[in-house]
Design goal:
Elements: E1 4-8, H1 13-24, E2 28-33, H2 36-50, E3 54-58, H3 64-76, E4 82-85, H4 95-98, H5 101-128, E5 131-136, H6 149-168, E6 174-179, E7 184-185, H7 199-202, E8 209-210, H8 211-224, E9 228-229, H9 233-243, H10 246-249
Parallel strand pairs: 1-2, 1-4, 2-3, 4-5, 5-6, 6-9, 7-8
The structure holds NADP nicotinamide-adenine-dinucleotide phosphate.
Length: 263
């Protein structure tokens, strides 16, 4: 029987690991991102190692056309079993210098795309009476991040939206999870925005997680239920502090390295 998982941002890091682990569980995969060659490699591995189907939709989720491509794929393969809204990136420039463009792009990738893709997936899931939506957020949702304010803002939106959505979907058989990974080895901090810092050096090793661990913890947590999944005790405590309002007050906290503090 078909069991499709659609994963955005599957070309590296956490999304690539979701692809690998879901293929091992027998899911057929729709992998999206902009780097088609990387997606093809992840798809080829899933086919050859697990015998599942794996399709690639190369699309820029910062654009209306890219979002439409993925929406169309989802609608034409309904019902999909799982949607992992994982695509994302960071910014390291003060809003007062960069202007709105990078933040507007981030709102598209982190918020508008997930909202549209969830909407595309819901009719099929509702009819089937089951389905899973994972929204990859961040503990940074609870922080103030000069130089990356769009990141904190868009991840906050994802949390609040998911909380309401999960309540709307109670009793439908559709599960919602918000995943809050800590600092994770991936391509995230290798992107041009982070070229002038070496976060692997400046952030202590014990604070880093692997993408494999993050994806595995998320998928395991689905069996337990519950809306939020925060891999690792350290980040559970940080998130608790954040939810109580401490992180926004803490200036220059380690989380602020996701951004660029004022000189
Ligand atoms: N790494 C961390 O420390 C950390 C911590 C907390 C939360 N997160 C979150 O985890 C998620 C995955 O990040 P990661 O750490 O795995 O980083 P990553 O290796 O850089 O992966 C990000 C993925 O998002 C895709 N993406 C970015 N912009 C896109 C766009 N405009 N259109 C389509 N796809 C786009 C990338 O694909 P292409 O480049 O091929 O387009 C890539 O597959 C993100 O939402 C991030 O905010 C990461």
């Amino acid at each position: 029987m078909e069991k499709w998982a659609v994963i955005t941002g599957a070309s590296s890091g956490i999304g690539e690991e979701f692809a690998r682990q879901l293929a091992a569980q027998g899911y057929d995969l729709c992998l999206t991102g902009r780097r088609a060659d990387r997606l093809e490699a992840v798809a080829a591995e899933a086919r050859s190692q697990h015998g599942v189907r794996a399709e690639v939709v190369a699309a820029d989720l910062g654009t209306d056309a890219g979002m439409r491509q993925v929406e169309t794929w989802i609608s034409s393969h309904a019902p999909i079993e799982m949607l992992v809204n994982n695509a994302g990136f960071g910014i390291r420039s003060l809003f007062v210098d960069s202007g709105p463009d990078p933040v507007v792009e981030m709102i598209a990738v982190h918020n508008i795309a997930p909202v549209r893709l969830i909407w595309a997936a819901l009719p099929g899931m509702k009819q089937a009476g089951h389905g899973t939506i994972i929204n990859v957020s961040s503990p940074a949702a609870y922080a103030s991040l000069p130089g990356n304010g769009g990141y904190a803002g868009t991840k906050s939106f994802l949390n609040a939206f998911s909380e309401s959505l999960a309540r709307e979907l109670e009793g439908t058989g559709i599960r919602v999870q918000v995943l809050l990974p800590g600092f994770t080895y991936s391509d995230f901090h290798k992107r041009p925005a982070y070229q002038d810092v070496d976060l692997y050096r400046s952030i202590p090793k014990f604070m880093w997680q692997t993408s494999e661990y993050v994806a595995r913890t998320s998928l395991k947590a689905l069996k337990r239920g519950g809306l939020y999944c925060t891999p690792g005790l350290l980040y559970k405590l940080l998130v608790l502090g954040g939810r109580l309002g401490f992180a926004r007050l803490a200036r220059g906290s380690i989380l602020s390295r996701f951004g660029r503090d004022k000189k």
